[in-house]
Description:
By secondary structure, the protein is an alpha/beta fold. It folds into three domains: 1-76 and 154-215, P-loop containing nucleotide triphosphate hydrolases (Rossmann fold); 84-150, no CATH class; 220-292, no CATH class. It has helices spanning 39-46, 67-75, 92-102, 108-121, 137-148, 167-178, 193-199, 217-222, 266-292; strands at residues 2-11, 14-24, 27-32, 54-59, 62-63, 77-80, 155-159, 185-189, 202-207, 210-215, 228-231, 240-243, 249-252, 260-261. The strands form three sheets. The chain has a six-stranded mixed beta sheet with strand order 6-7-8-3-9-10, sandwiched between helices. The chain has a four-stranded antiparallel beta sheet with strand order 2-1-4-5, with helices on one face. Strands 12-13-11-14 form a four-stranded antiparallel beta sheet. The longest helix has 27 residues, at 266-292. The radius of gyration is 22 Å and the shape is globular. Residues 279-293 have low confidence and may be disordered.
Amino acid sequence: MIEVRTVTKRFRGVVAVDALTLCLGPGITGLLGPNGAGKTTLLRMIATVLAPDEGSVTVDGRDLAVADQRVEVRRRLGYVPQEPGFHLGFTAFEFVDYVAILKEMTDRRARHDEVRRVLALAGLDDVRSRKIRALSGGMRRRLAIAQALLGSPRLLVLDEPTAGLDPEQRLRFRELVTSLAPDTTVLLSTHQTEDVRALCQRVIVLHAGAARFDGSPDRLATTAAGRVWTAAERDPRAHLAWVHADGSVRHVGEPPAGAALAEPTIEDAYLLLVGRHDDSVASRRRRRSRAVA
């Protein structure tokens, strides 16, 4: 169980996470949001990399602000950062073995068995003796996932875990994550709405450091009901529009009378939700500008 209580984090006066409160339990939760929404900052605080400026984060009742409790959380945590750091001279096996040593796996034989297990889970068994500098970007991403699985952690924090993976690798990742024990808590950020639809029981849309939606993927999609339509030509009144392969134009926004409404998707709802917030921010800025003038 993860509890985030009124957490705020700033960088040089800019608020990245804004008085955010969340409670996360076992299962897979997806974080959606544009670049700069605060997703990585939130994940880094939960993964014990950053400390909040205000508020608190607890994992299974352990307060991450307390050093010995923070160490306890790290023992049961798997973390894939947005930009994993690798020693390029290590082999894949040596890198994961090094992380296993940091996780206090002191029995050499048992540790090496565990390293081989997670490399196989990530589909890297055949390249475990290859130097990291010789691995492709997708292989390095899978290597980051492998080290996060060491010790079958109760909590997995994954920042853009499918970035750089090809379609087959993405499907294998989904298979791997959904096979985890039912008491495992997985929190992942992604720009892939199809990953959210395929993996997540819960989705949180984060924008400007605040949660704009929290619920199931199906419920997110229904928030766009009646606001998605298709037409032969682009409607300038739409919030967004794009051309399908068949030549029809899909619109999201406020449909005109008599429009041919379409079944909404998670992506439609996300675009509308983020767009509405952007519009409200722009409106507040215009009002402040007029007040100053």
